From TrEMBL:
The keyword Iron appears for this protein: yes
Source organism per UniProt: Oceanospirillum multiglobuliferum
Family: Belongs to the 2-oxoadipate dioxygenase/decarboxylase family.
The protein's name in its UniProt record: 2-oxoadipate dioxygenase/decarboxylase
EC top class, as a word: oxidoreductase
Pfam families per the UniProt record, alphabetical: HGLS
Required cofactor names: Fe(2+)
Keywords: Dioxygenase, Iron, Oxidoreductase
Gene3D superfamilies assigned: 3.10.180.50
Amino acid sequence: MTPQAFFDQLWYSYVEITPQADQIRDLFLATDAEVINDHVAFRTFADSPIALDNLEPFVLAMGYQVQADYDFEEKKLRARSFIHSDSTVPKIFISELQTHKLSPKLQAVLGKYIAQIKAEPTDHSVFWSGRHWQTPSLEDYQSVAAESEYGAWLLTIGLCVNHFTVSVEQLNSTNSLQEVLDRVKAAGFATNLAGGEIKGSPAELLEQGSSMADKQEFVFVGGEKQLIPTCFYEFAKRYPDNNGNLYQGFIAASADKIFESTFTAA
Ligand code: OOG
Ligand code: NI
């Protein structure tokens, strides 16, 4: 699959559960000829047929290389980023929940669902395949959420792109991340304030911010209905290093806060 076809399909599946994405993109298309994507991100369960290691071959097959690995000890996540030889192709960030690090109780609850994941992926459609397990119960959702918001999000939503990211330094209308976030807020969308509205700094060569995830009504297996977070939009501004090359990495401390864009607690 070509990166172009891959990202087209991803965008299509993303806006379906993230109506804010189209609206936010339109905000910038009103002033900019193009809105260029910096990266997209996925979440999955480690130690499962859809673990990071089993997704990776499909990323590499599109011409990507492994860029770096990250560890989020407190959230019990590990992650890897991928960069393409064509610098106009968005980077890909994949994280996975290390379920073996969760409490025995939670391992048992999530284990019931993870055991239902049938086979390893055979093509790129795994990236928009959603849930590979039955609709969860509200009780299970709540017990997972108490220990891992990421786990609860993944249990309801499944495998899909969880954000696209506007490349702020490539906008023509503004070069200011704060201005971008102000426009998003003025249009009625909440931004993620965890660790400050802007994560990172020019000194770190990367500044990031994001919207809070859209919410959608979810019907649990017992028929209970509750609003759950779906996906969000990110905005990233990269700075050149001393050699004049635009920094391309991710910053673990900032990523740790971007994960909270799908948190339910205010
Ligand atoms: C990914 C969070 C990390 C970034 O840009 O640092 C990230 C997630 O929320 O799944 O996207
Ligand atoms: Ni991101």
